[in-house]
Structure formats: structure tokens, C-alpha cells
Amino acid sequence: MLGAAIYMLWGCIGASLPSHAGAEPVTVFAASSLKPVLDELAPHYETKTGNPLILSYAGSALIARQIQLGAPADVFISANQSWMDHLAAQGAIDPNSRFDLVRNRLALVAAKTLETGSRDLRRVLATQKQQKIAMGLVHAVPAGQYGKEALEALGLWHELAPHVVQLDNVRAAVRLVARGELGLGIVYASDAHKNPDIDLVGLFPENTHSPILYPAAAVTGSEQAEQVLTFLRSETARAALRHHGFVPLFTEEQ
């Protein structure tokens, strides 16, 4: 049943994509937090290579399962190491192609309508206990897993857990806070970077959660993945990633 649902989802996505006669399309399955930067980079890739780039976004857990069940992806970019490790253990990615693309930070954000009265992250969480907190699924979505780790490290998880609204990807959490439907959100720093619709309260200390690394790799059997992975190491990609609040972890020569 899960497999059928995933293939139906992919079919709906693929049906809406434009065709490019004679070109070699390349399909990238990426964590939803990468959507703004990859959408910006796609035209540059297509101009440089002449090949269309098909981008599919969701939580890392969902797209990893899609790939495991045979969805037609060439490249996988995860928001944590564990889902890439999972596919590696299944033989679904080429381990020699794997590299860490970027680093991110974890942020507490607030709706524009919420008067937090402070930029002290711990104080805001302590004084706004009546607010619902948007975050990813804590057992599947990397942003949710990092968020739970951080709240546990600060000794706040058990007190705040009843107020957490868990969502299937971090972009959904951002949208709910931006619309003012929820007062607070635990998202990535890149989601808050230059986002006029939410207020950045502060960044969680990096020692409160696992390192937020985004590995990229070719899906086993792909003949088009190398071109995309090379492009993602280019200075064009590095500049765009920095502009969107990520920290590139590679050089063009790597």
C-alpha cells in the first residue's frame, strides 16, 4: 500500500513537468529545505548543460523511501546523514559519489504577530508556553529530530512536547508560522534567512543537537548524476547556497 501511494505521488509530480525534446533530464530528490536554492540554480544548470533538471522535494524520510522503492531519481540530497546511511546500507546510492554539500543551523522563529519581548531563545520558550510550536516529525523528519534533541538538551522537551505540532517537512512548519497560524517554529537557519514573513528569535547552540549536514550522492545505476553533482560543487552553486543561508562544505576541486 505504501509503495502504491508513493508511486502515485511521483506520477502526479512527473505528469506536471515540462518535456525537452532530445535532452537528457536529470531527476533530483532533495530535502524540502533546499527548495528555494535549488529552484534558483535549476535554470543555471539547464543553461550550462542543455539538460532539464527535474526537482522533487519532500521530507528526507519520504524521499529516501521513494528511492528505496524504485522511484526514478538520479541524485539524492538528504538533510541528515542517517537517511543517506539507510540508502547506502540498501545499496541504493553510489558510496563513491557521496559528499557533504552544506551545513545548516537550527533556529527558533516566531510569527510577526507574536510579541516575544526577547531575543533570548530559552526565555522565549519559557515565557511563551501557551504557544503551539511547529516543527518536523520528531521520529522521521531531520529538522524535527534536531529540534527534539535541542529541546532535550535544554531540559525543555517534556514540558513543551504537548504544545508541539509535528509536520511532514520543515517548509510546512515555516508556512504555518509565516501565516500566523502557529506562534513559534523550530526550523533551519536557512529557512529564516532573509525571510520577511517570520521573525528570527535565535539560533540553538550547536552543542545541543547533532551536526546539521546535508549529504548528496548519486542513486545507484544513474548515468546522469555525475553532471549534477559536479555542478553542485561549482562556484555558481556555492554562491547561491551562501546567499540562501547555507554554509558550503566543499571546494570546486573536490
TrEMBL record:
GO molecular function terms attached to this record: metal ion binding; molybdate ion binding; tungstate binding
Alphabetized Pfam families for the sequence: SBP_bac_11 (PF13531)
Source organism superkingdom: Bacteria
Binding of molybdate, residues: 33, 60, 143, 170, 188
Keyword list, A-Z: Metal-binding, Molybdenum, Signal
BP GO annotations: molybdate ion transport
Gene3D superfamilies (alphabetical): Periplasmic binding protein-like II
Gene Ontology cellular component annotations, sorted alphabetically: outer membrane-bounded periplasmic space
Signal peptide (residue range): 1-21
SUPFAM superfamilies, per database record: Periplasmic binding protein-like II (SSF53850)
Stated family: Belongs to the bacterial solute-binding protein ModA family.
Subunit-level organization: The complex is composed of two ATP-binding proteins (ModC), two transmembrane proteins (ModB) and a solute-binding protein (ModA).
Name of the molecule in the record: Molybdate ABC transporter substrate-binding protein
Source organism phylogeny: Bacteria, Pseudomonadati, Pseudomonadota, Alphaproteobacteria, Rhodobacterales
Gene field: modA
